[in-house]
Amino acid sequence: MDKFLGSCVTKKLVMAIAGLFLILFLLVHLGINFLLLIDDPVPFNSAAHFMSNNVVVKVFEIFLIAGFLIHIIWGIILQVQNWLARPARYKKTAFSQTSFFSKYMIYLGIIIGVFLFIHFMNFYFVKLGWVEGDHENFYGMVNDLFQLPLYIVIYLVSFLFLAFHLHHAFQSAFQTLGLNHNKYTPVIKGIGLIYSIVVPLGFSIIPIVIYFFK
Amino acid sequence: MKLTLKIWRQKNADAKGKFVTYDFDGASPDMSFLEMLDALNTKLIKARIDPVAFDHDCREGICGACGMYINGHPHGPGKAITTCHLSMREFKDGDTIYVEPWRAKAFPVVKDLIVDRTAFDKIQIAGGFISTNVGSAPDSHALPVEKSKADEAFNSAVCIGCGACVAACKNASAMLFVSAKIAQFALLPQGRIEAKERVQAMVKKMDELGFGNCSNTGACEAECPKEISLVNIARLNREFYCAKVSP
Ligand code: HEM
Ligand code: SF4
Ligand code: FES
Asked: Cα dist. A75→A7, A15, B89 in Å?
């Protein structure tokens, strides 16, 4: 398999690039989601319509799906190799000064993956016509879903775990790219911290506003 | 000092090991950890019990031979020290101390606390050297090297190859060790000549030997007795990409 996937460094590079691409995409997605806060359904629905019909976006979409798949598959392969590299565990372990969430990336990732599956069932597969639903009125669908407390809880928890995932992921990706610098790495870590708080928080505000104030 | 020692005992590479508990009151706070084990072994030998096998040589923190996983930390508690430099003052009377060998697929247990670290030698043989004749010490001084680079190369070169980074890493990755061995040459003009082949060959060998991948967790850096920094790993990554893009 390593003949095809390359060295450990190459595998991490692929994963990091895919991850950084997803990080950029999340910003775009969040921007569109904020349109949900407007009472008028037209802006959000036309944005959703644009996202599903524009040619440029269609090309982008292929990259996006590939990005998700590559990130997830590579992540699982790396993790399995890592488990195999330590067949016998320690009896007594202690915490050393480390990037805390890095130890739980696979579990955080799996939870995010489960959320993604639910999310795709609700929206993306509807758009593709694989699952029934009114793909011209995602605004209405979102508002219906965000009346269900259980759905909101799952949504919020998923974004909390995404925040944890991103807290390690953001700065880790730069280290993987080979960028580590006395002066700039603290800046990257700072931006990563802000991103991993602000973006998941931005997503999380929307169901709360819809449930309580609309 | 009265101690409860829970030590990994394993007859040989194929035997199934287990923890054996020793209630030991022969330690004093003035001893080093290895001296404490020596005292325990003297007691065991007198009782005709096979002594605990552990690696050691210089006992002054420079050879990298000693190394055991003590209470959840490679080289025990204490920052930037090897096991031979670990003082019993770090422990309290009545403490329970777990002593385990390095755990990694690439470092199989030979006996008790001794592991086979030939894997590191194999990585070094794959490329951790220079083949240019650099002459004797005065000759190499004739080649000007930027002070900052010389310092950085030296900081990488202090790695003693103990394997604590592998032991500390949740993935048993050897990236910190390999990156230090890459960086110590990559920063110097004599080392640059073979830099591209070196990084590819050493990374390839590391993968073959069954070490894990780097998750940028940083446990290696935190536990390394020589404080080798993650900056080395970023340098290895850069060197590797450059070598691949323009071989
Ligand atoms: C929006 C979703 C996601 C984003 C933006 C994201 C982003 C990232 C980034 C940037 C990294 C750092 C890569 C590096 O260290 O070089 C990373 C690491 C990781 N991700 Fe994700 N990720 C997402 C979802 C997932 C999912 C669904 C999974 C798996 C089921 C996953 C599993 C992992 C694992 C295991 C790592 C650690 C890899 C390692 O250090 O060895 N991620 N993620
Ligand atoms: S990098 Fe540090 S922990 Fe790893 S082998 Fe070298 S000295 Fe030991
Ligand atoms: S015995 Fe040489 S470093 Fe500890």
From this structure: 14, 7, 43
What's the gap in Å between A102 CA and the centre of ligand 1?
10
Residue A151, domain CATH: 1.20.1300
Q: Which residues pair with B98 in a beta bridge?
A: B6
Q: Which domains does chain B have, with CATH numbers?
A: 3-110 (3.10.20.30), 117-130+145-245 (1.10.1060.10)
Do B229 and B186 contact (CB within 8 A), yes or no?
A: no
Which residues in B25-77 belong to E strands, given as ranges?
69-70, 73-74
By a Cβ cutoff of 8 Å, what residues of chain A touch chain B? Answer: 2, 7-13, 78, 81-82, 84-99, 102-103, 105, 168, 171-172, 175-180
Q: Contact A86/B216, CB-based, under 8 Å? A: no
Domain of residue A18: give its range. Answer: 2-213
Q: Which two tokens stand for residue B160?
A: 């003693």
* Per-residue buried b or exposed e for A59-76, using 16+ beta carbons within 10 Å of the residue's own CB: eeeeebeebbebbbebbe
Task: State the complex-level ipTM.
Answer: 0.93
Convert the pLDDT of each residue in B25-54 to its tens digit.
999 999 999 999 999 999 999 999 999 999
How many structural domains are present in chain A? 1
